[in-house]
């Protein structure tokens, strides 16, 4: 079982986080694509286009920076969609992965109800989603659409 070494918290993302978010974006790209970051302004344009795409697709975005103490270690971007919270983006910096923080963030969302997300078919994160009980509800050649009904508790209901 993975244990969290240090507690993880979140705070709303601000304009001051753009540098961190760009570095996180580069860390998630395939090496050949990341190398394009040497072209001045290209990654900034890609980041801006991606953010605009998210904003156009989801009316209720919550953009949070994942913190250990005061240090940013990741991002959690969610949106309310009919009948679920949709994870638009979840990313932990490569050198900080494997400490249970992604699991903690997803469990926190699942405690409040159903969660949906999309993951690349070749993403190592697929194993995490499977372990947490997400079910495949759709697929393309490159991505899986996943859903989890959330953790229902009987606490306080007398059941």
From TrEMBL:
Record lineage: Bacteria, Bacillati, Actinomycetota, Actinomycetes, Propionibacteriales
Keywords from the UniProt entry: Transferase
Family annotation (CDD domains): NAT_SF
Domain N-acetyltransferase: 8-155
An MF annotation (GO) of this entry: acyltransferase activity, transferring groups other than amino-acyl groups
One Pfam family matching this protein: Acetyltransf_1
Protein name: GNAT family N-acetyltransferase
